[in-house]
Amino acid sequence: MTDREKLIAIKLFHTAVWVFMNVVIFNLLYAVLVDRFDHWAWICLGIIGLECGVLLAFKMYCPLTLVARRYSDSQQPNFDIYLPRWLARHNKLIYGILLAGILAGLSWRLMGG
């Protein structure tokens, strides 16, 4: 497998993980909005916690980005994932704000709000 093929495989997998994490995040958002905390909501919260732990452990870099770096010297923010440049550049900020809102809403709901 060439370096280009390896990078494509990493980008495909990284994009699939990103899509999966979006499903998880928006499932938790839905649970907060409709005030329905079943076992899926708690599983989503655990997955998000795991993702945040991984990012913290890797100094706010996705491990897939670090692996992809071996196969590319591109400085583009989306060199390792199939996302538009602007979204790849601001991904952590956008989802950080979204998650902060979800966690605030979750806290409010759990406190009886």
Which key phrases capture this entry?
113 residues, mainly alpha, 74% helix
Specify Rg, calculated over alpha carbons. 16 Å
What percentage of amino acids are in beta strands? Answer: under 5%
* Beginning-to-end CA distance, first to last residue: 55 Å
Largest sheet: none
Strand tally, please? 0
Helix-strand layout with pairing:
Elements: H1 3-34, H2 39-57, H3 63-69, H4 85-110
Helix pairs in contact: 1-2, 1-3, 1-4
Structure description:
The chain is an all-alpha fold and 113 residues long. It has 4 helices and no strands. Helix 1 (3-34) crosses helix 2 (39-57).
Q: TL;DR of this structure?
A:
The chain is an all-alpha fold and 113 residues long. 74% of the residues lie in helices and 0% in strands.
